[in-house]
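>> Question from a student workshop board

For tomorrow's exercise we were told to take the sequence and the ligand below, predict the bound structure, and bring the output to class. My setup keeps failing. Could a helper post the expected result so I can at least see what it should look like? The ligand is adenosine-5'-triphosphate.
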Amino acid sequence: MSRSPSLPDRPTLDIDPESPPDEQLEALREHYVNISQVHEQLEEQLETTEQRREELREELDQVERENETLKNASLYIATVEDIFDESAVVKQHGNNQEVLTDVSPRMAERLDVGDRVTINDSFAIQSVLDAETDARAQAMEVDESPTVTYGDIGGLDEQLREVRETVEAPITNAGQFDEVGIEPPSGVLLHGPPGTGKTMMAKAVANQTDATFIKMAGSELVRKFIGEGSRLVRDLFELANEREPAIIFIDEIDAIAAKRTDSKTSGDAEVQRTMMQLLSEMDGFEERGEIRIIAATNRFDMLDRAILRPGRFDRLIEVPEPDQAGREQIFKIHTRNMNVADDVDYAQLAALSGDVSGADIRAVCTEAGMFAIRDDRVEITMADLLAAYEKVTTDDEEESGPSRAFA
Ligand code: ATP
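>> Workshop helper replied:
Here is what the output should look like for this input. Compare the format with yours to find the bug.
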């Protein structure tokens, strides 16, 4: 924006009335010359200002016309894929149609590859949307300092040892890996039934390493953000870079990394793109600093083998339902802050509950507390726990499936 030029100084005339007339005449002549020069300068300035006013009026007209079009027409959403001098490739969301469209110089200045934009029927870009922070916030859960510790996790000693070795050690003891000359795995995949402590393990590692915990759920990514999956994956890694050390936890990775099917719907293509973005982020991983990736799935059988190749999720850790000793430990963990009667026999509880998950056990403990409260007691007895176990497992059966309700 050009500024108004400053005005020239106004000439002044000081005539001594006592001076001789020819001196006074000379002073008047000089003053006249000065005034004429200032007049000329002012005329020039006026002309420039008028020109500028004309330009501004034209700009205003154009903006008003654009504004009208924007108000009247429904617009489509698209993502900018590539930018050239006076054109750009945009991909329309929904049908994934890619189009090369002209871009006005004014718009070109504001565009970046990856921007979400609105386009009209003729694919002309109308405006740049600013919703990415929003989408980020909805799709990701960021916890600067999770509070879960290894001591909160029961019955997964072997799995914890492996996670610590492959995820924690490369962050806390990177030098040792350098000295030995091996690359720590980029990603670790935890697989097993729901509610068995996979998320807990990822949070506990983040806690132990003072890393930011960033969680993204594969299913959410695919359901809510059609057309944005690959961009969100990019955002996810960018965010991790900003916050390193960071643990990226991708839950339900099967939603974006399922085996390829024959169907060719645009939804499938979109999921494929999201996965390709994830793989490319992981492949470019060496340059990244203290970022580790943990993914989790309940559907290991469905995974595309491409994600299990070396350098990607090449360390697979099975997280099973807890065994007798594990169940006993989990019962103890979840009742440790409760007022428990002496008659509670943890070994017996663990023996009773055949194939339950850690999440089920937590639900049993909470339910037992509810029984005590309903009975107006402050102490939880073995009878409460047994009744709660009965209730939780019956509810489970009625839901005819794994105990998602308690996860
Ligand atoms: P999902 O596959 O459904 O995401 P998950 O395996 O990630 O499940 P978590 O979210 O870690 O399971 O566990 C859910 C809750 O169940 C935890 O918050 C915790 O209270 C309890 N829990 C599960 N497993 C354990 C365990 N091994 N020790 C202690 N508590 C557990």
